[in-house]
Design a protein that fits this description.
single chain, alpha/beta, Rossmann fold, Arc Repressor Mutant, subunit A, 5-stranded parallel β-sheet, 14 strands, about 25% strand
Length: about 220
């Protein structure tokens, strides 16, 4: 799941990114309205965390612009401006939630999960392919009663491949699903994630396989 964090306080952005990455999110961090505009043009995000006071404008003006253009991505406004009138203004301008600073990171994560659940209530939070069950809510993959121990990026690779089971997933699409804008990607990093994931699935008795499609990407299908 990919998040866009729009926050100009660098230390806060770093701290939030660490917490969100631990929760298996891919985080794209932007510190200005202009950079945020480019980010929503180039990537699809599952949710946005938006500060109001940005160097080149008010976050709510950016939010109104987004909504006016038809972008319905769930947004949490995160700001020190937390008077009742500010909260009403933010919600009326299109925010799905509004959280004042200072805040508990656990509360932010809970609210984030809630707005994402509301936005995709029509979609199952579980993906099943073959004998693999992927629980997106709890970030768990199982084969029968066996829990497969997957770190965050292997879990993201598995989710992307399962969502597109039977179709070739391009390397670039996988990298975009697994890495944020600021992540440094080693030349063979994706291959290493896939290799480890493939071995764990085989060792756990999966009845699906990950096939390498030379020069293109990977294909997830029944054995």
């Amino acid at each position: 799941m990919r998040l866009l964090l729009i926050e100009d306080e660098i230390e806060m952005a770093r701290a939030l990114s660490v917490v969100l990455v631990q929760q298996h999110y891919v985080v794209d961090h932007m510190s200005t309205v202009e950079d945020a505009r480019e980010a929503i043009k180039s990537r699809v995000h599952d949710a946005i965390i938006l500060d109001r006071h940005l160097p080149d404008g008010d976050g709510l003006a950016f939010l109104r612009e987004m909504r006016g253009a038809g972008n319905t991505t769930p947004v949490i406004v995160l700001t020190a401006r937390n008077a009742p009138t500010d909260r009403v203004l933010g919600l009326n301008d299109g925010a799905d939630d509004y959280l004042g600073k200072p805040f508990l990171t656990d509360e932010l994560v809970a609210r984030l999960r809630a707005i994402v659940r509301r936005s995709d209530h029509h979609e199952s939070r579980t993906i099943t392919e073959g004998n693999i069950v992927l629980d997106l809510e709890h970030k768990e993959a199982r084969i029968g009663d066996t829990l497969i121990n997957l770190p965050r990026r292997e879990m993201l690779v598995l989710e992307m491949l399962m969502r597109r089971s039977g179709r070739t997933v391009l390397r670039r699409a996988l990298e975009e699903a697994v890495y944020g804008y600021d992540d440094e990607i080693q030349s063979n990093a994706l291959d290493s994630h896939v290799s480890r994931l493939r071995k764990k699935l085989a060792d756990s008795g999966a009845d699906v396989e990950i096939h390498s499609i030379r020069g293109l990407g990977y294909l997830f299908k029944a054995s």
